[in-house]
Design goal:
The structure is a homodimer. By secondary structure, chain A is mainly alpha-helical. Chain A is built from seven helices and two strands, in the order αααββαααα. Chain A binds a DNA duplex through helix 2 and helix 3.
Chain lengths: 178, 178
DNA sequence: CTCACATATATGCGATGTCCAATAGATGTC
DNA sequence: GACATCTATTGGACATCGCATATATGTGAG
């Protein structure tokens, strides 16, 4: 139910086509929210249908025409309503932990491989997050800038925590002979 | 696709009814995996249909009869296959971060409330995780015990990280006048 | 000339998941 | 006696999601 609002939020910053939306989502909120391309188009259609957004066809000569979507007053109100609504926090699913939970069916060596793979993936993700250009003076970008940098910092902090936890977990496993 | 395997994994530890399964899931893997009750029953039916588990009706006099589910050899093999299969790690969705990302549409005071609410929820979750009895000698419970304690430690580590991040984020907001 | 790639949108389908409600006996409480 | 709670299962309705696939045009590489 929240992709609607995420899209509404991004469109409120700047009107966009579905195609551009996909790219912006991947680059900005990608580390805590993903969206399938087809799902984006479907959601956009739903927003238009419900009057929360309007689409305007922009004729382009060097490219296929695109549908530019903007948030309506109704959509803006819905966005505010959502922001003020209570947030029920269901624990997020962690497939990796789910696997580790049952991994004692495998030999210890395999478990180490599981942890190593996880470490490699996380290192990459962390590097990608850290590579994002951070302006020296964050406050320059106003409240929105501070908040968006905070979500980035969140991703970095959790990635580091996960790496530390991997270290600790591998040390625990060292005591166990394979 | 993974609830199947989570259930298979738990059933491999001990045969259970759907009802007990729900409780065990909530108490053991609850902090990184949730399952709706009706979904559990449907998944169990699917497992039986596919021959990965068998159900046996146990007549109880003081309670309604129950269906005890056990993993078959086929199910056990499937579990091992899943453990060895590559794990594609899609970033988990964080509705709270999604909201914070667009929260600059609200007055700063509201944003602080958002953070405070999050802090209260997390403190509760952290306390719940820390309250879980941890045996002094974890290795006593073998490899499985070590791994399961590791998933618990993971939850605790991330909860603490999130609380620290909340502190830092609130400090950042202090500089901004409401 | 062909093939890959970027732009741009759309539909079908199945898997998965949540919410809600119904059923039903036993036990406990006010 | 009424009402809630625990055990235990089932089904319908509906939303969401991800994957695959289709279509169309322009650009640049080889």
């Amino acid at each position: 139910m929240s992709l609607r609002h995420a899209i509404l939020g991004i469109l409120s910053i700047k009107p966009m086509s579905g195609y551009e939306l996909k790219k912006v989502i991947d680059e900005s909120v990608g580390h805590f929210w993903t969206a399938d391309q087809s799902q984006i188009y479907r959601t956009l259609a739903g927003l238009v249908e419900d009057g929360l957004a309007v689409r305007r066809t922009v004729v382009q000569e060097e490219r296929p025409n695109m549908h530019l979507h903007s948030v309506t007053d109704l959509g803006s109100a819905e966005l505010d309503r959502w922001l003020a609504s209570p947030l029920k926090a269901r624990p997020s699913r962690e497939p990796f932990l789910a696997r580790l939970f049952f991994a004692d069916r495998m030999p210890v060596e395999r478990i180490r491989e599981l942890l190593d793979t996880r470490r490699r993936e996380l290192s990459g993700q962390l590097a990608a997050l850290e590579a994002i250009e951070v302006p020296a003076d964050a406050a320059e970008f106003g409240l929105g800038g501070v908040l968006r940098l905070a979500t980035l910092a969140n991703g970095i902090a959790h990635a580091r925590t996960e790496l530390d936890w991997l270290d600790a977990t591998e040390r625990r496993l060292e005591g166990i002979t394979s």
